[in-house]
Amino acid sequence: MELFSPTVHRGSDSESGALTPGQGAVDADWDLTLVDEAHHGRKGTNLYDLLTDLRKDTTSMYVLTATPMQLEITELYDLLRLCELPEGWNDRENFETYFDVQQDLPELLDEIAGSDSKTVEVLLPGLSSKWNVEPYEGMLTLRTWAGMIQAFVRKHDDVADRVEEAIDETGLSLSERRRLKRVLGVGRLGARDWEDRFSQLSGESLRFLLELGSQTTPVQSRVFRNTRETLRKFAETGRLDQRVPRREIEVREVELGDAEPLYDRVETYISDVYNRSKQLLEGKEQTAVGFVMTTYRQRLTSSLHAIEQSLQRRRENLKSELRDVSGISDSDLRTGALADREEVLDREYDVSVDEIGATGDAGERIRQYELSELEDFIAQLYDVPEDPKLEQLVQDLQTLSGLARDTVIIFTQYTDTLDAIKNKVCLSHPAVGTYSGRGGEIYEEDTGEWRGTSKERVKREFTDPNGDLSVLICTDSASEGLNLQTCDAMINYDLPWNPMRVEQRIGRIDRIGQVNDDVLIWNYVYADTVEEDIYDRLRERINLFEQAVGPLRPILEGLEGDVERVAMGESDQDSEDIANTAESRAAEAAELSRRVGLAEDGKETTEAEIIESSKLDGWTTAHPDIELVGYPDRRFEPMVTPDVVKRLFTQSQVLRDQGWRFEMLDRQLTDDEDAPYKKLYRMSVPDDANPPVPTDPPEDTVQAMYTDDDEVLISFDPKVLEWYPSVVIPLPQQELFEYLLDVLRQNQRGEDIGELVRFDGWLSESGIEIEVNESGQSDPLVSMYASSESKQRLSLDVSVLNEKMATETIQRWLTPFE
To answer: What is the dihedral of CA 371, 374, 375, 376, to 10 degrees?
Structure first.
C-alpha cells in the first residue's frame, strides 16, 4: 500500500509560505481529504478531474493505492502531482524525462571512451547522437534533469546539507566540487549561473548526479511505502501488535471421472454454436450469441450443476422465445469482465444471459441449430452425475476441521453452483449460511430448511466468535466489503478467468489482524482442462496468489481476455504463451518500480533501521499540517456524545408535536434476526417531512425488514454499523442529524434563544484575541456559537451559552497555549 504525503495550500499573507497558527488555508473547505483506490484517478478519468479541483478546497490531501504505477511512469505522476511537487517536477513531460535520463545515461557514458574525464560540453555530441536528437536538444534534456535534482535539493534544507557534505567527500578537484555545488545550488553562492557551470562538469560528476538523482525524487519525500514485508518487520520488532498473515496456497485438481463425457459434450456444444454464430451472424447479434456461449463456457468450469441449470433454462427459452438485443448497447455486450457484463444486462435491461438470441432468418437458423444440439444430449443433462468437486469439498471440510480450521468461507461465481454446494454441505455441516446477490440464508437443522435473512445477520453470525455459523458459502458479491479476519480458511470452488477476482476473494481473509499466522487457500479446478493448465503455469512463473499482488494488478486484470480467447479457441496462444507474456510483463513492472524508487530492498532488520527507512526524505520536523491538529498536552473531549443526541431527539416534545415518533424495537420482532433491539429505534416520519434517509433499502437488510413506508430504522450507537450498515446513525455531520436539529431550531418552544452569534479566538503576538465573526470566513484556532440572550437550553442536556460565557470559555481554552 502506498500512501502519498499531503498537498499543503499555504496561507496567502505569509512571505515564507509556511503555515502558522490562525493563518489558515487558501479557499480550503476541508482540513483533510483521504482518497482510497487512488490509482483510478489517471489522466483522462473523471476522478482525475475531481482530484484536480479538490486540491483547491482541501488543506491536506492523502491518496492511497496499492498500485501507484502500472506500466507507465506518467501514471505515478498523476498521483504525485497532488502532493505539491518541487519546481520543475510539476510537469508531466519533465517527470518522464527525468527517469528516462536516470535509466539511459549510465549506459551511454559507459559506451563513450574516457567519459569520466570529459566535460558535458565535449560529451554532448556523442550523447545526442545516441539519443537521436540535435545537440541543443540533448543539452536541454540534461539541464532539465539536473535542474529537477537541484529543485529537490534546495526544497529541503536537510537534503542540501547532506549533499554539500557528500560533494566534499568525493575525490573530485576543488574547482569541480565548486562547479557541482553551484549546479545543485548548495553552498554560499547558491545556484547563480548554474547552467554555464553544468556545461563544464566532468563525466565523473554526471555519475555523481546520477547516484544522487536516485535519491532526490518525490517518491522519496512524498510516498510512504508500507508493504506486507514492512509490516511483518514491524510486527517482529513489536511495533505492530496485530498479525500479518502469510498465505498457504494449495490447488485441488479434481478428476471428472464419470462426468467427463458430459463435460466434453457440453464443451463441444458451446464450441459448435459459437463457431456457427460467427459464420451466420453479424454485428451486435454475433456479439450477443458469442457472449452467451462464452458465459456458458465459464459456467462449465464452475460446476456441472451450474451448466446443467443454465442449459435447461436455455432449452426452454429456445423453445419459447428469445430476447431481442437491439435495445442493448454494443459496449455493454463487449466491454468489461464477463461477470460485470452479466450484471449490467440484468440491472440495466432486465435480461438474463439465458434469454439472449438473434432475429431474422440467420437468427432462426442459429436457434434451430442450437436447440437440436441441446436436444441431442438433453437426457444426459437430466441425469447429471454428482459433481466430483462436491465430494472433494466434503472431504476438505473434514480435513480442515482436523486442523482446527473450522471457520471456512467457500467462494463461487454462480448462484446455481452455490445452491448445489449449500444442499450438499448442510448434510454434514449444519452451521452453514449463504451470502449472495439474493441476500442471506441460514440453514435450520431442526426443520431441514433454508431460511432467508439479512446479509447483515449472516455476516455477524459468521464473524462473531460466539455466532451460529462456521461455514459461509458466497458468490463474488461478498468479495468486496467483507472483512473476515476471524476466518480460518478459504476454498475457491471455481476460479474466474480474471485472477484479480480471486485476489479480491483472498483479500477478505488475508488481512492485518488475522487470527491465524497463515491463511489456508485451497483452489479447485477440473483436471486436464484449459483453466487448470493456465493457472498452474501462472503459479509457476509469477507465483500467482502466493502474495498480495501489488504491481501485478494490471497484469492480472489483463489476463481474462487471454484466457477467454484460449478457452473459446480464438487464439493461437496456449497456456505456455500466456504464462510467458505474464512473466515478461511482471518483470517489466518490477523494473519500472525499481527505476522510480518504489521497490524496496528489504535489507532493514533492526527496529531502528526499519523506522529510519520508513521516514520521508526531506522532512526534519512534523508536517506543518499535523502540527496544527489537536492540543499539545490533552485530548479533545467532545461536548456532544451519542447519549446526549439520543435524549435530545427521543425525549423532545417539540419533535413529538410535529409528528415524529421514536419507538424502540420490540424484542419479539427481532427474535429471528437476533438483532440488538435495545439499540434500535423505528423513527416515524410525519407526512409533510422529507428527511435525507434511504427510500428503497435492499430487501435483505434490517432497514427494510423492520420498517414500514413511513419509518426509518435508526440507532445512536455507532457500533451498530459494524453489524447492520443499513441502520441510520443520526449523529453530528450526518444529514439526518442536521435535519432533525433544524426542525428543533425552527419549532423551539418557550423563550426565544435569540440570535446565534459566532465567536472566534486565536493567538497573536499580543496574546489571546476573541471577536465576533459575522462573515464566517476566518479560520480561527477555536470558535463557538452563543446566544445574544441569556443562557438557554435546547434540551435537558444541551445548552446555548450567552455571549459572556462563550467569551470566558474560549479564553479558558486558549490560556494553556499562550
So the answer is: 130
